[in-house]
Amino acid sequence: MSTNTASAPGSGFTTDSSASNVRWIVCGLLFLATTINYMDRNVFGYVEPLLHDVAFMGWNHAADKFHQPVFDDNFGTVIMFFQIAYGVGFIVAGRVIDKLGTKVGYALAILIWGLASMSHSVVTSVAGFCVARIFLGLGESGNFPAALKAVSEWFPTRERAKAVGLFNSGSNASALVAPPLVAFVSAKWGWQAAFIATGSMGMAWLVLWTLFPYNRLRGASTQTQANLAADFAEAAESGGAIPLSALLQRPGLYAFALGKALTDGVWWFYLFYLPQFLNRNYNLTLKQAYPYLLTVYVISSVGSIAGGSLSGSLMANGRSVNAGRKIAMLVMALCVMPVIFVPHMSTIFATNAWPATLLIALAAAAHQGWSANLFSTPGDMFPSTAVSTVVGVGGAAGAVGGAAFTWIVKRNLSLHQLLVFSMAAGAYVVALAVFQLLVPHIGVSRKAA
Fold first, then answer.
1. For 116-150, what is the HEC assignment?
2. Any idea what the CATH number is for the domain that residue 289 is in?
3. How many CB atoms lie within 10 A of CB 179?
4. 27 in a domain, yes or no?
5. Measuring CA to CA, which of 4, 69, 279, 301 is 20 to 30 A from 410?
6. Within a domain: residue 14?
7. Is residue 116 part of a domain?
8. For residue 83, what are the domain limits?
9. Does residue 6 form part of some domain?
10. What is the recorded membrane topology of this protein (predicted)?
11. What is the CA radius of gyration of the chain?
12. Is the torsion defined by CA of 398, 146, 151, 114 positive or negative?
């Protein structure tokens, strides 16, 4: 993208063309893709109660639901295969999308994950689920590198976290659509139909994305991106690509990656284990749990948008990019901490799931607000030609951290819930402290520093 254009005062763009409202159409497409992305990965968690009757999963009907070591191990193993593949895929996907561009890279990613999602419907063993989850993870790993690259190409700094918060709220919207959809199609045609239903939505999105003239309508670079491109000019290869070796020299890459590694597993814990938590602690079926799941994800959507808007509001009122991002992240980190009290709720309110649900909802909303700002930092620190690569490295770290946290969860959630929720409560404060140590000043170029 050209960076030799005149700056439009106050716009945040080097030209006014990029500031058109078309960018919000792009944000809408990113929202739909993210919604489908989370629907496809979460179906496995939603059909978990139905898998009790699938012989190869190992549920023991003679034992109580808190003592199902074979089933729990199989269920957790399938999830871990997804997370590992998701992490490995990030490393490749980020680089591929930077090479192919947002339009082609995104299309390839959703084609792979949509087909992989539908393939779950034909498995006949735990190993089959694992293979399907591997390909699902490889495809889904392209969503965020592509989406965040798109945001860096279309949105100025002050709007970036808001845009991320909006499209990332698709992860919550999926929870509004998926449970009733899964419940309906599973009741009518079996659990296999749930995977076909969500996977086919990805194919529909692919048609929309193919028809949208992304590259023709995109304008010039944002002013922030123009400055970052100049900062990385010496390292850039012909064609504008920045070698991975140059990116690995920047502490911002490690700050983002560690932020993801320390907190992604907490979000995945809510996604994959919340239906199980409500079932085992409060005897709620998926249908009965829907109002509680709905509440968590509606509140999460509010947190995603509010948290993303907070940093932009702070910048609009005179705060620097550094202060705006980090104050917002600190507020979100503190809002997560009451989740430590969740394990006590089933004792205090043995038949009422709402207190525990609302604490989890607050934590999930804070996570989404945190993520909206953390996801924006690659665009604050790297040019758009490298954003997907940086997000890919961070996503890989997040997947490794998520797999590690899942390993802890599957061995401790039934009998040691306080340990799990204590780790979830403290992860964000630790992550922010690490980020601050590595990047004391976001937005300060290395040359200036």
1. HHHHHHHCCCHHHHHHHHHHHHHHHCCHHHHHHHH
2. 1.20.1250.20
3. 23
4. yes
5. 301
6. no
7. yes
8. 19-438
9. no
10. Multi-pass membrane protein
11. 21
12. negative
